Amino acid sequence: MRDGGRPRAFRLHAGGFTLLEVMISLAIVGGLLVTLIYTLNYHLGIAGRHRSVTVATSLAAEKMYEMERTPAAGKGQFPEPYEGFSYETAVKASSFPGMSEISVVVSDGKEKISLAELIRKVK
Question: Could you tell me the domains of the chain?
């Protein structure tokens, strides 16, 4: 017995991993990869939504600035590169004397941004 007196069963696999150990490690790595991919997709979705809301807010502010100069109700699409965004403007009478309420709604189909403001009535 040159092996130090160990039984034969222990001498056979002393230098490597068993199939069970390899399967467990692959299951752990697979679970980590699934979690990582899910988290990445989730955060990319959030980043896309934030981009859309930011662009829509900027376009609504620009349209509101135009409405302050010449208030008029209407609908339309924005030109390139914002052709995916549409707008709707409205002018309403206000409960305050001599004031009108102007509003702008900008939408990309998923997100909708609304801005409203009081202005002096145009004579």
Answer: 17-120 (3.30.1300.30)
Question: What is the reported pTM?
Answer: 0.71
Q: What are phi and psi of 14, to 5 degrees?
A: -65, -25
CA-closest candidate to residue 59, choices 1, 21, 116, 107:
107
Give just the sign of the alpha carbon dihedral 20, 26, 31, 32.
positive
Burial class (CB within 10 angstroms; exposed 0-12, middle 13-18, buried 19+) of 90: middle
Model confidence pLDDT, tens digit, residues 7-37: 655 555 557 889 999 999 999 999 999 999 9
**Residue type at 118?**
L
* Overall residue count recorded for the chain in this entry: 123
CA–CA dist 85, 79 (Å, integer): 9
How many CA atoms lie less than 13 Å away from 32 in the CB half-sphere?
6
